[in-house]
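During the no-cost extension, the postdoctoral fellow (Dr. R.K.) reprocessed legacy sequence entries with the updated structure-token encoder. One reprocessed record is reproduced below for audit purposes.
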Amino acid sequence: APAPAAEGPQPERIEIPILHEDDDIVVVDKPIRLVVHPGHGQPDGTLINGLLGMGIPLAPA
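Re-encoded structure tokens follow.
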């Protein structure tokens, strides 16, 4: 049987340049054509997946 689908975006190793990071904010230089968040037709390989893969905590939506 196939594995159950994961809930929410999953961490991925994606190179995203960080321009500034402190306790409150992270400023990134988003590469051109990098989709911001998973959606229909783009379930992974996004900025959100990359930030999670870098261990950067995200605020709940």
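The chain has a mean pLDDT of 92. The chain has one helix and two strands. The remaining legacy entries will be reprocessed before the final report is submitted.
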